Amino acid sequence: MRAATVRGSSQRPLNSARCEQFLLHEARLLDDGRFDEWLALFTTDAWYWVPSEPGQADPFQTVSLIYDDRRLLETRVRRLASPRMYSQEPRSRTSRIIANVTIEEAGRGACTVRSKFMMIEYRREQQRIFGGTLLHRLVQADGRVMIAWKRVDLVNCDAPLDGITVPF
Amino acid sequence: MTEGLSRFFQPGRVHRQIYTDPAIFELELERIFGVAWIYVGHESQVKNPGDYFRTFIGRKPVVLVRDAEGNIRVIHNQCAHRGSLVVASDKGNTTEFQCCYHGWTYHLDGRIKSVPLQHGYSRDFDPKNPKTAMVQVPRVQSYRGFIFASEASDGPGLEDFLGHMTTSLDDMIDRAPDGEVEVAGGVFKHAYDGNWKVYLENLCDAAHPLFTHRSSIDAAQQQSDDVHSDGSGEIAIRQMRQNGAPYSFWESQVGIWTYPNGHSYLGDYHDDAKLVASLKDPLFREYTAVLEKKKGKEEVRRVLEVRRWNSNVYPNLSFMSQFQQLRVVHPIAVNRTVVHTYNFRLKGAPAQMFRNTISFANTVNGTGSLVLTDDLEIYNRIGMGLTSEGAEWIEIGRGLQSDIADAHGGRRGQNSTSEIYIRNMLDAWLGYMTKSPADMRAAS
């Protein structure tokens, strides 16, 4: 108990301003195509999830547009750097806006942050708009904010969609 | 135009126009999707009276429904009054269908139940006329739970149409310890800007994975297995690595079989100890034990020796028994296609197997998968490339000289990368397209 208190006191609180700063930083890494740096934001046992159904209960009994455990997330990011990823030739350009940031639940050095996002993706003469709700579980490790899990609920998650290649 | 359709074919070649001409697309809807047995759904999607599921035959909106007597019907999703779409929800349970325009109400089998202000319609208006209804699709048949419908009132029965492909559907069901499968785990819907035919033309193509899927093969091969996985990523990465088998393997070890009416299947290509039948895998041992208890050792040996990858039932269905996947092709326009993909649960099998089915679906059918996205790119690029005024003829001649007869009335490729299954689909295509529906009736 005492150890936890001591460790907790050495960390800055995960308040709303700090969470928002983190989300904006993450969005910028994704827009800039700095996927290795994006991957480094995740904890070693993190997961990243884009459900296929509104309100989907879990990623194991129903298919998901994306459900990556840490191992698959690494593979996904490695592939994004491949010159032979034909579905990213030409590359997408994306522009994201993050808003309506609220802290849903906060505990010792960790919190769940809810936000709204909109992402414009432009590729090969076509522009797509994705939007929805982000849930981030943020934790602190060695003074750094990290993502323990991230859930992306697209408003059109059950629509017929062409391939999704750039993470939200 | 029909008489001239054979001009689009030469040995081992097909003219690009059949993938790009809107008039040919319209004729396909009439002569292929308006005649052939079209897969509409599975009985587990309409378990109880009143259960319904909205889908399409070609471009026509229809409803698969179990009526009050427990019979399965496929009815056109169109009000007999002013033509409005009646059923707007994807699925559900109801006691009747009601049009939101003037309140015309229908029994579950499509017959009119009530019409408000009926006295006002013309004197010869007969609500009992079967054509004044949500009109039934004339023929609906189930093969062991897999429901097909045909807009042709006469013609070969479903089992004649399926022929040897019944063995692939059998394999889907026989793997379930309780002898039944059920649709579960949601649906993926993919869209691409290209012709519907190119989708099926990729599913038994053993020559493309090593090239098209290179980025995911490389990324998976370089992935450390020491990194944390909850099991999902492990299945995905194992599958991606399998795509990296050398060309010599794809040519000689897989197998491609084709049958009348455009059907075909590709043999399995897995040697991974967790993706296929392997007694080294504790989950598979547990599954085999359950299966043997229900079916006996002999039958289980027979079932597990059937090893197939994609089975295509022309023109709108592809499925895979080993991982319980099923894909339905919906042609939208000559250059637009939507594909819906489903998963099946093997009743009585260990729960972890369905979890693996989901991981597998995310990998091979997922809209954001590391594999399918490159296939979708190919379909889009074929859509764009074919509009070029470059090469008139598309090559589909791989294996043409070496294909051989098959024991079950079909033909197979001696080389597994033979494009025989494309030629076989196009043979069926020409057969359907050069017969008008009137010809079909005359022939029967």
Q: What does this protein structure show overall?
A:
Mean pLDDT of chain A is 93; it is low at 1-9. In chain A, strands 2-1-6-5-4-3 form a six-stranded mixed β-sheet. Chain A is globular. By secondary structure, chain A is an alpha+beta fold. Chain A has one domain (2-154): Nuclear Transport Factor 2, Chain: A. Chain A is built from four helices and six strands; from the N terminus they run αααββαββββ. In chain A, 24% of the residues lie in helices and 43% in strands. In chain A, a hairpin with a 2-residue loop joins β5 (126-141) and β6 (144-154). By secondary structure, chain B is an alpha+beta fold. Chain B has two domains: 38-150, Rieske Iron-sulfur Protein (3-layer Sandwich); 163-433, Naphthalene 1,2-dioxygenase Alpha Subunit, Chain A, domain 1, CATH 3.90.380. Chain B is 30% helix and 24% strand. Chain B is built from 14 helices and 22 strands. Chain B starts with 8 loop residues before the first strand and ends with a helix. In chain B, 45% of the residues are buried. The model of chain B has no long low-confidence stretch (mean pLDDT 94).
Q: Compute the gyration radius of chain B: what is it?
A: 23 Å
The amount of beta strand of chain B, in percent, is: 15-25%
Provide the helix percentage of chain B.
25-40%
| SSE sequence of chain A, one letter per element | HHHEEHEEEE
Strand order of the largest sheet of chain B: 13-19-18-17-16-15-14-22-21
Q: What is the overall number of helices of chain B?
A: 14
Q: N- to C-terminal separation of chain B?
A: 24 Å
Tell me the greatest interface.
A-B, 40 and 53 residues
Largest sheet of chain A: 6 strands, mixed
Class of chain A in CATH? Alpha Beta
- This entry's quaternary arrangement is heterodimer
- List unreliable stretches of 5+ residues of chain A: 1-9
**Number of spatially distinct domains of chain A:** 1
How many structural units, i.e. domains of chain B? Answer: 2
Supply the CATH architecture of chain A.
Roll
CATH topology of the largest domain in chain B: Naphthalene 1,2-dioxygenase Alpha Subunit, Chain A, domain 1
Mean pLDDT of chain B: 94
* End-to-end gap of chain A: 38 Å
